[in-house]
Amino acid sequence: LEDPAFIGDWESEKRLGTGGFGVVTLWTNRKTKQSVAIKKCNIVKDGNETTDKQCDRWSNEIELMRHTVKHENIVKTIDVEPESFIKELLKTSPTPNLPVLVMEYCELGDLRRIINKSKNCCGLSENEIRNILKSLRNAISYLHDLKITHRDIKPENIVLKQSDNGQIVYKLTDLGYAKALDKKSLNASLVGTLEYLAPDLLYSERYNCSVDYWSMGIIAFEIICGVRPFIPHATLAKWMLHVQQKKSSHISITENNNENYTYHNNLFPEHHITKSLARELEIWLRIALEWNPKQRGYIFEVPDASIVESKSKAFKFVDPKDAPIQKLKIFTMLDSILAKKFLTIFSIFSCEFFSMEINEETNVSNIMDFIEQECGINRESIQLILSLEQKVTSFSTETKAIDLFIPESYEKPMLFVAKSNCILNTSDIKPIIPSSITDVFQNIKIKLKPHTLKQFAINAYYFVKNEQRLYTTLLNGIKTYALVLNDEIVKYKTNVSQLSKLTNGLCGGVEIYRSTLNHTKERMEKKDLISLTGSTFILWEEQCTKISNTINKLQEAAEKITKRYESVLKRSREIISHNILKQIEQDYYNLKSVENRYEIVRAQILERNTHEKSHIDLMQSVYECLKKRDILLRDLGFKELQQHLLNIKIEMQEIQKAVFKALQHSEKYQKELMKINIEHHENIWNLMQNFNDSQFTSHQHRRDQDYLPDIDTMLHSGFTANFDLNGSVTTLKNALGEQEVNKNYLCFGEGPDVTSLIADNEALLMTTESLIRDGFELIQ
Prior knowledge:
It contains 24 helices and 15 strands. By secondary structure, the chain is an alpha+beta fold. Among the domains are: 1-105, Transferase(Phosphotransferase) domain 1 (Transferase(Phosphotransferase), domain 1, Orthogonal Bundle); 108-339, Orthogonal Bundle (Transferase(Phosphotransferase), domain 1); 493-581 and 645-695 and 753-779. Strands 1-2-3-4-5 form a 5-stranded antiparallel sheet. A 4-stranded mixed sheet has the order 13-12-15-14, sandwiched between helices.
């Protein structure tokens, strides 16, 4: 019987799915807007023993689901009101006495819907894969702890729900509670899901929880590569024949157009995860997809090797306790893999992605070693460029690599690497074309079988899509390179300005020193002392001229450097807005058309309507992509862009070297200028000292009282001072005789009047020192 459209406030909206023993329908409460997924058992009791067991199992497992199973990665049950709603719903059930299962509604559909999207034909993104595997691992481990084996894990039974924080949560549903699997029901009830079942469910009466490990491995391979691993198009008999022949190391089997089978130890290269994660998951898949159920999910661990070796040498035999021990690793190994962090690196030089595992101990020096080994760039030529998403603004060889890691950013490079003095090695960038495409290139008129055509179509779409990704990432890398370079140039303006200020300060210092010399010369000429300096003053003037010429040349060099810098700065800004870098995210390879052609081939395969020319359009898309790729990489404007960027970098490096040398010379000349100023100051003091010594020698027989008037006599002799304020000024007589006092002497006969001259020189010297010191501080 069909469910009614309405029961009270509840409205039946649509059927969500149909299982082997039940139907799931979406119901929404019109008042509360609550939506639930309700699963009803559609088994009709007919007295058959199997049917009765299925009904009993349904009731028991529903009870278990309601009261025992509580996990965030398993769809939870919900109580709804009023109770009359459920009662009315049971009236249309073929088995009214069996309870219904009311579950939370996962509005984003199931994993099959995600896998079937064209963009996911070669697998999902790394972030999605990580989240799905983690969720699936948690759910299965939880069920196994409860001694529950799901037995029917497949993409249709993994549903998606958006949490309150916007994150997508993957949940396991349809726990197989009503599935009493036997050989008679396999072909009838498991059509389309055969490859998710472990082989032991097909050939053995007994099985254990390892059947879920197999299903988990199959799903893991499919979400990574987009297809199931073991000849998914084959019949059951052929599938069993070839799968049971695989070795433990084999994780996939393919069949070509000539019915030749190949056993693979690795994932297909056409996927969207980092190479580092792929290598790790290949190891895990080998234990998940082990044919032998007793070994599936397990590995053999040898006890401490040193202990075993010492025992074997001592006793000439191996203790049974020291033999390899079988340990369950299906969950812990996956946990370890998913906990690892991989740094994504894009080489601008070779236009390819790399990834490396990092931890708390990894530093930039280790990254350099990795790049040298993997990218083939000499360590001295490696240039690391931080992506614009990085929070770190600068780094050194000691910087921790973990600081460069950006969570959930595996699709984009966290770090760009370039080769010094070279942007892109266009002569050696060859496309990586999938083998299924090269096979068709060699015989374009070949009629492809459906399974071969499907693989060809998938790989053709992937190839064009990947070339689009590589080219846009390359342009983003070059633009990031240009932005980082421009930022360095802008920040370097401070150094150029400091050089200009310093050279101007030195020029000012020279002018002050020259003024000091001129002032000294003028005062000495007035005092008639110039002859006392001899050749010293000429030497001072020569020194001044020499350092003045040198500093003038330095200033001219600084002006040229400034002009070159301004030119480089202008060009670096212009290159950022280059036409090629303006609109990077565009469809360079007509990807939309390729997707449409892929959809046509896919529909032909589903409708079994393929023909000998089904692959031609996609073949044409690949050919056009290769032509466009060659045009883009060899484009004259693109080459000029790279050359301009390289020229700017080289010229900026030359400017930095020139500024460094100029600053060194400025420091040297600053010290030289200070030195000659101090020498000049010392010479003035020496001149005064020498002159004082000569005066003291010629008059040493006189006492101080001979030079000074008797103040006491003047104050007590009864002499009355006569102060004529308006009288005429008379010439002061020399205390040493009757001559007039020479202007070169003080009134108390203290020697030559050079004190004021020294004071002037001291003031000028201090001013000069201050100016030069300010310039030096700017450099520091």
